[in-house]
Amino acid sequence: MSFVTLSALPAGILFALVTSITPGPNNTMLLASGVNFGFRRTLPHLSGISVGVVLLMLSVGVGLGEAFVHFPVLYTVLEVVSVAYLLYLAWKIGTSGELKLRNGERRPMRFHEAIAFQWVNPKAWMMVLTAATTIHLSNSFGMNAVAMAAVFYVIGFPCICVWAGFGTAMREVLSNPKRLRIFNVAMALLLVGSLYPIALKLFGHGG
Question: Which residues are listed as membrane-spanning (predicted)?
Answer without folding.
Answer: 44-64, 71-91, 146-170, 182-203
